[in-house]
C-alpha cells in the first residue's frame, strides 16, 4: 500500500478505528511516512461533533502532525442534494479527503475500515440487491490506488486490543447505536442473529467479498477488451454498437452498460439492476431515437445503430439553480461540483489562472456572492478583452455540449459576473499590483473543456 517516504492523508474521525490506524502508521518508523490528518465535522451531533473535532486537533498536536479540518452541515447538504443522510456524509467526506490530498500532494488516503465493516457492507448490499461487483464490497486498495484500507483484514476486537495495549483514548460516536440507520441495525441486530447459525459469520462474509473481488478483477479485463471492440468514449458521451451488443451474452451486456455509465458519470451511485434491465430493453425493443433517463443526470439514447450514454441530460437536474456564498469556504453545487473560496497570497503572475482556478480582488468582489447556472442574456468581459461577450457564445466557442451547460457555475458579486467557472476568467475584479485582499477561487469536479 505504501512506499518509503510517501505522503499520506489519514482520515481520522476520533473513533477507535481511526485512532488505532493513525497510531499504527505513525509507528511504521521504517517507512518514514509523511502523514497529514483530515477530519470532517458533519455537524450532526452538536457539541459532541465539535468535541470530536477538538479531540482530533489535540491528537495531531500530540503526534506533531499537520491537521486539516472542515465543517459541513451534512443534513442541509443531504436535503439540497436529495440524498440520504448516510450518502450525503459519504460524499462530503470523500470530496474533502480528495481536496486535502490534492493540496498536500499526497500519494494516497488511508481509511480505517476493518473486517467487521466489510462484513456489514456485504450484508447491506445483499439486502439492497447487489450483484457480484457490489458484493465484492470494499477493496484494500482502490483501483486507482487513491484509497487504501490497511485494517480491512483486522477485526474490531483486534483493534480494541491494540488500543488497550497502547493505552490510547478515543471518542465514541453516539449515533453508532441509532438503529434508525440500516447499517446499525445490521451491526447490532442482524449479524448477532446470524451468528446463532454460524458463529464465524463475519469472517465468512469477508472471505466471500475477497473471492468475489478476485472474480471481478478477471471480469473487468473481459469487459475492457469487449469495450475496445464495440465501444468508444468521447467528450460528448460513450457509445456502444447496438448490432454487436445484441450478439453478446446478457451478463457481458450488463457489464458494458455499467462500464459506459461509469465513464460518463464517474460512479454507479443509484444505478441498480432495474436500470440495467431497462437499458437492455432499449437495445432490443426500441426504435432509433428512443431514450431513457437514469438517476444522477444520465441519459441513454438509441441513435443510428449506437447506444449513446450522456451525462446531465435526464431532466432530473434543476433547470435554474442558485447557491449563496457568504464568504470563504467550501460550497457543494448542483451537478456534483464544489466551489472552494479561500484567502491567498498574490500569485506569481497577476493574471495567473486556469479554467478551474482563478484569483479575485476581494475589495472589487465583495461578499455575499451568488453562484448560479447560465441564463439567457448573461454577458461579461473576459479577462484580456475590453468588450462584452455573451456567455452563451463563450460556451459554444468552447464546445461545451448543450446538455452539460446547466452545470457551469457563474459567480456573481453584486450584479457583476466575475468568473465563468471551469471555462473563462473575467476582467471584473481581476488582480492588480495594489491588490491586498486576494481570494483564490477553485471549482472541483468540473472540467467542461475535457468533457466534465
UniProtKB/TrEMBL annotation:
Its main location: cytoplasm. Residues 369-441 form the Lysidine-tRNA(Ile) synthetase C-terminal domain. It catalyses: cytidine(34) in tRNA(Ile2) + L-lysine + ATP = lysidine(34) in tRNA(Ile2) + AMP + diphosphate + H(+). ATP binds at residues 13-18. Ligates lysine onto the cytidine present at position 34 of the AUA codon-specific tRNA(Ile) that contains the anticodon CAU, in an ATP-dependent manner. Cytidine is converted to lysidine, thus changing the amino acid specificity of the tRNA from methionine to isoleucine. Belongs to the tRNA(Ile)-lysidine synthase family. The N-terminal region contains the highly conserved SGGXDS motif, predicted to be a P-loop motif involved in ATP binding. This is tRNA(Ile)-lysidine synthase. It comes from Geomobilimonas luticola.
